[in-house]
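Quick question, first post here. What does this chain look like in 3D?
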Amino acid sequence: MNKIHQPLQRRTFLRGLGATLAIPYLEIMSKGGVATAAEVAGQGAAVPTRLLCLFQPNGVYPKAWDVKGTGMDYGISPILEPLSGLREEISILSGLDNSAGGGHVNMTGGFLSGRGIGKGKGATSLDQMVAQKIGQNTAFQSLVLGTEPPRQGGAGGNAIAFANTVSWSSPGTRISPEINPRVAFDRLFRTTDGPEARKNAELRKSVVDLVLDDAKGLRRKASLADQHKIDDYLDSVRALEKQIDKALDPPERDWTPPTRPGAKDMVRPPEGIPRSRDEHLRMMMDILVLSLWTDSTRVGTLMTAHGFSRQNFSFLEGVTNDHHGMSHHKEQKGAVEEYTKVSHWYISQFAYLLERMRSIDEGHGTLLDNSVVLYGSGMKDGNGHKRENLPILMAGRGGGKIVPRGHLELKSQPLANLHLTIAQKFGIESDDFNGVGKTVVSEIS
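> Answer (accepted):
Ran it through. Tokens below.
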């Protein structure tokens, strides 16, 4: 005879070791003791669609990136070889151009916005548009990660620091990526339920309130130009305020993940920044996957490196130059070979991310099936800062909204057309993306 039990509340969390994590739907949550297939797949609610955007700096060597043939029968290129086992999951999109203008800073800024940087302002980026649309039912509206701190100096009239991010919540508010794995992990999973943690969160809340009051008072005395600057600042402070409010009072869930990470997945990263490039980027990718798997957020962005990156890749055999230096290869054989090896390494990390997402079952498809994953660079080739025919990949099926097509040779058009297409897939009703994207890319549907 089945034992009669009191159903467990659906909004139930595991707490321990300073972490809070939503548990999957269990049989004990159903009235009869046996969960139905619909309950296991999120209590009958539709599995949410997620968006991931990954940026790779400094472009690629075109002859080592470009594939031969179209559709699913294309011949894989040297750089893309790590994706050989994922052919059914990806689309390679040729013909998309960056309209943001020349130089690393502008082309980085345009990767998710379609527009460059002017007078210290950009344009709202795709990831943040989607986050503002779908981020109300998760603890974090979005997660923005990176691996390099901002750099100093100027480039083409713009501060190089602007190439630190591709994420803009408004034209005047850029989001700096979190580059410390432990800080990113703690932000997602450290509990606010304990008295001390809750006290700290409430203290931060009170500080934010004071800052807002002071800034509003200052605004009344400021010039029109300064008022705009203060408004941009207030936008970023209000975003922090909303984040703290969600931590203190988490939103009701509209969907519960049917599986959860195990102990080996939830290992807290060590302190500091890893010295190994491999280890650092893999950690950030793992955290990104965990954030989606646990439904902590549904929008994630990863700067695999700064848009003007001079990262050293001497851990790769035969590589001696920094990444930016080798990207200006001048068709010299040695520099081209190093440039290609680094791009191949980046794609191998991307393949790791996709494999992890493909391994996570969500009842109705995998995490990868239920996501739209955009990967690429804001320039085609660092040698000459070429901005036509960008190296762009898409993966996942967006919960049925996207169909992987292999290699798609599109007519030359702005990358912002793809932004517009993705935005519409997430329910953003617009036929214009930042004044640049005007036409949807119908081929990906």
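The first helix runs from residue 37 to 40.
Residues 14-22+42-190+254-444 form a domain with the Alkaline Phosphatase, subunit A fold (CATH 3.40.720.10).
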